[in-house]
Amino acid sequence: QVQLVESGGGLVQAGGSLRLSCAASGSIFVIHRMGWYRQTPGNQRELVATITSGGSTNYTDSVKGRFTISRDNAKNTVYLQMNSLKPEDTAVYYCNAYRLGYRAFDSWGQGTQVTVSS
Predict the structure, then answer these.
(1) Per-residue pLDDT reduced to its tens digit, 35-60
(2) Are 81 and 66 in contact (CB under 8 A)?
(3) What confidence tier does 91 reach under pLDDT thresholds 50, 70, 90?
(4) Neighbour count for residue 78 (Cβ, 10 Å)
(5) How far apart are CA 90 and CA 41, in angstroms?
(6) pLDDT tens-digit series, residues 64-75
(7) CA-based torsion, 75, 20, 68, 102: positive or negative
(8) What is the maximum alpha-carbon separation in the chain?
């Protein structure tokens, strides 16, 4: 399994920015995909953005143009730069690391709270 440690959440005013980080440890194998998901009370966890080991990215429509996901493969760390934040971005953000095939895993971080005030 892989352990994920998230950081960078907090309280910010609408229009502001935050940068989330997630460091993975515990595996020497390539992490095929890393990503960020978010969840609000009473709702299912939803995809925010993912990035593959090759650098291909995917974003949910509501964050396109505002959020940028990036990755440092050497450090097994994924980042989420969030700009132009809106109150509806308020949620607990979870990091995910996913590997297919040999020594597969699908690991989650503990979550970090992002609160955007209006």
Answers:
(1) 999 999 999 999 999 999 999 999 99
(2) no
(3) very high
(4) 28
(5) 10
(6) 999 999 999 899
(7) positive
(8) 46
Tokens standing for 34? 């890393």
Phi-psi sector, 61: left (phi>0), alpha (psi -120 to 50), beta: alpha
> DSSP string covering 34-48, please?
EEEEEE-TTS--EEE
Q: Report the C-alpha gap between 19 and 111 in whole angstroms.
A: 14
The residues facing 68 across adjacent strands are 81
Q: Is 53 helix (H, G, I), strand (E, B) or coil?
A: coil
Those residues whose C-beta lies under 8 Å from the C-beta of residue 56, and which sit 6 or more positions away, are: none
Q: What is the DSSP letter of 29?
A: S
